[in-house]
Design goal:
Distance between the termini of chain A: 78 Å
GO biological process, one term (chain A): jasmonic acid mediated signaling pathway
CATH architecture of one domain in chain A: 2-Layer Sandwich
Distance between the termini of chain B: 48 Å
Largest interface: A-B, 40 and 46 residues
Structural class of chain B: alpha/beta
Shape of chain A: elongated
Strand content of chain A: 5-15%
Radius of gyration of chain A: 25 Å
Oligomer: heterodimer
Protein name (chain A): SKP1-like protein 14
Number of helices of chain B: 11
Largest sheet of chain B: 16 strands, parallel
Structural class of chain A: mainly alpha
Helix content of chain A: 55-70%
Pfam families (chain A): Skp1 (PF01466), Skp1_POZ (PF03931)
CATH topology of one domain in chain A: Potassium Channel Kv1.1, Chain A
Order of helices and strands of chain A: HEEHHEHHHHHH
CATH superfamily of one domain in chain A: Potassium Channel Kv1.1, Chain A
Organism (chain A): Mucuna pruriens (Velvet bean)
Keywords (chain A): Ubl conjugation pathway
Number of helices of chain A: 9
């Protein structure tokens, strides 16, 4: 009985200590940057993540004052929907405790949850923001869809309209046989 | 494949093209992940795709692919396709070019491709060939855009100009390359200038008809030389000098070479954190051990004032030479106890793999290595055979190393039964100073 009260007593103390530690760490953490998307939503983003965006880096090089001031850094070609996704991706990949397997699982789910319109918008946003890691991940994933597939599959998958006449197409297949490509 | 088809048809419900109107540069980036011939094949998708593949920034050619997918393409097809791709490319600068050749190709073609790609300011160049191809193009040694160069070409013969400068190169990896200089009556002195090179790795590379090679590598951090094939030495002996004030890791692994390797360090600033020297036993008998000894002692003489952590194998090759003093060495892993201990006063951990000999006169306190008295903290002894000199050494260290905190002995695997028991008893009977731990373990078979 006595033991029980003892343990219940120490527990809140311990959690308070942990909370305090957490606070300490966040206090030590660097500043945040204010980003404004094309649909006029502002985001407070950890500087360590925002500085991975080439576009943000470039902006700060031109006007270094923006890092300290309250003015938001405008991202003209990125909507809030895309920025949320980009931040989700970077926060996961920035997380120290994430193991290789966690990241792989995360990447797979991240990709699966996107419909093609979203994927395309995200790709354009990543390209504009110059976020290398995400851009490479997305482009590589699309390349993997095309790899080792026949022409019809790729057309159907991406909804590409074949505007060649059958004669033209046959001629192109013939002409490009030099590449040793299988056009099944 | 079947499930993918289902997914594909489901996704095209809206019948809206979701990829074709992406900017050309993005499509080029996507296609750069594919083998180049596969990127080219997208030209039949639609009129828009007719020349989108020309925006690729990376080129990959691999002639093994034809077997894997049973494409029936001949060598001439690969040759033709390389020329056509290089001709049609739209991108002004190419990020990487990788070529894997498993068949014999006319060196004329290979050199033409390399020249063409260098003209496009390629950043990374990888050439692997299972068959002999000599790389003759001099452009390769003048490129200001190359950042990474990897050549792995069987029996490749490369003639270098006397002055080489690659101003952007950060990584150089060479395998099976024989370097020589332009023919002349006199032996040549070469200067290779790589101002931003960080990593230099060679495997089975050699120099012929070259008197000396000076590598100006002010930023070099990692230097690794492998010789996994024992060459029958010719007369040619080249002096290879590395001016590498920022070197932190050095590896020499394999058979001895007749060349001399020198370092030009700035003694006050350079600190080689780690050196690993592993010499193989020669197939050609004892005489070749002499050249191994020469090489090893030259290397050690060059490194002695700068190396902090040293791994060394086959100490017996050093029998021919005097060891220098190791002023800053703090960590050592060697096979056998030797003069090394006398030369390294700052040694803290010591890892020994077997003891060859430990004379009674060495256990004389006057001859005691100074590191025992002042610094040694951890001793790991592997392969304790229980012979007299083993035990004498163990007793000596345990009784005299004043700062020793931990000693770990592993007995030799063929020591067992009564003998093992006796060795254990002996070990535990040694008088030890203060409270430190002795671990005695038997290897698990």
């Amino acid at each position: 009985m006595a033991e029980e009260t003892e343990s219940t007593k120490t527990e809140p103390l311990k959690t308070a200590e942990e909370e305090f530690k957490k606070l300490e760490i966040t206090e030590e953490e660097e500043s945040e940057l204010k980003l404004e998307t094309s649909d006029h939503v502002t985001f407070m983003v950890e500087a360590s993540i925002a500085m991975k965006f080439g576009a943000v880096q470039q902006y700060l090089e031109v006007s270094p004052a923006a890092s300290a001031s309250a003015t938001a850094i405008p991202l003209h070609n990125v909507a809030s929907r895309e920025l949320i996704l980009i931040l989700e991706y970077y926060r996961m990949h920035d997380w120290v405790d994430a193991g290789e397997r966690d990241l792989k699982e995360f990447d797979e789910r991240f990709l699966k949850d996107l419909n093609y319109e979203e994927l395309k918008e995200l790709l354009l946003a990543a390209n504009y923001l110059n976020v290398e890691k995400l851009f490479n991940f997305l482009t590589k994933s699309i390349a993997n869809i095309i790899r080792n597939k026949d022409v019809e599959f790729v057309r159907t998958f991406f909804g590409i309209d074949n505007d060649y006449t059958p004669e033209e197409e046959a001629a192109y297949r013939e002409e490009n046989a030099w590449a040793g490509v299988k056009f099944v | 494949m079947g499930s993918k088809r289902v997914r594909a048809s489901k996704k095209s419900d809206e019948d809206k093209d979701i990829i074709s109107d992406l900017p050309e540069a993005i499509i080029g980036h996507i296609l750069s992940f594919l083998l180049t011939k596969e990127a080219v094949s997208t030209c039949v998708l639609s009129k828009r795709w007719n020349n989108l593949w020309t925006f690729v920034t990376k080129l990959h050619f691999d002639d093994r692919e034809q077997y894997r997918y049973r494409y029936n393409i001949s060598k001439s097809r690969l040759v033709n396709s390389l020329y056509r791709v290089l001709l049609h490319l739209n991108t002004s600068s190419i990020q990487s070019f990788s070529l894997y050749l498993s068949e014999n190709y006319d060196p004329y073609h290979v050199n033409r491709w390399v020249s063409a790609i260098l003209h496009r300011r390629v950043n990374e160049l990888y050439i692997l060939s299972k068959k002999k191809v000599d790389i003759l193009t001099h452009l390769l040694w003048k490129s200001q855009s190359l950042e990474k160069l990897v050549l792995n070409i069987k029996d490749c013969y490369i003639k270098l100009p006397t002055f080489v400068s690659l101003s952007s190169l950060t990584y150089l990896g060479l395998t099976d390359i024989m370097f020589t200089c332009k023919p002349s009556n006199d032996l040549q002195n070469l200067t290779l200038n790589f101002p931003v090179l960080r990593e230099y790795r060679t495997c089975n590379c050699s120099w012929s008809d070259v008197k000396s090679v000076t590598l100006e590598v002010p930023m070099l951090e990692v230097l690794s030389i492998y010789h996994t094939q024992e060459s029958t030495f010719g007369d040619s002996r080249t002096v290879i000098k590395f001016c590498a004030p920022r070197l932190t890791k050095f590896y020499y692994n394999g058979f001895a070479i007749p060349d001399t390797i020198l370092f030009d360090f700035d003694l006050s600033t350079t600190c080689v954190a780690f050196a690993d020297i592993q010499l193989y036993r020669s197939y050609f008998g004892e005489e070749n051990d002499e050249s191994a000894g020469l090489l090893a002692s030259e290397l050690l003489k060059n490194l002695n004032n700068n190396v902090k952590c040293l791994m060394f194998q086959r100490l017996e090759v050093l029998a021919f030479t005097d060891l220098p003093q190791f002023r800053v060495l703090t960590c050592l892993e060697i096979e056998k106890v030797s003069d090394f201990l006398l030369k390294a006063p700052l040694l803290k951990p010591l890892i020994l793999k077997g003891l060859l000999n430990f004379d009674e006169e060495l256990s004389n306190l006057e001859n005691m290595p100074s590191c025992f008295k002042s610094n040694l903290q951890v001793l790991k002894f592997e392969g304790l055979k229980g012979k007299k000199h083993d035990l004498r050494f163990a007793k000596f260290v345990l009784e005299n190393a004043q700062l020793l905190k931990k000693a770990n002995f592993t007995t030799d695997w063929n020591l067992s039964g009564f003998k093992l028991k006796k060795v254990k008893e002996m070990m535990l009977s040694f008088k030890t100073s203060f409270g430190f731990t002795i671990e005695l373990s038997v290897p698990v078979l």
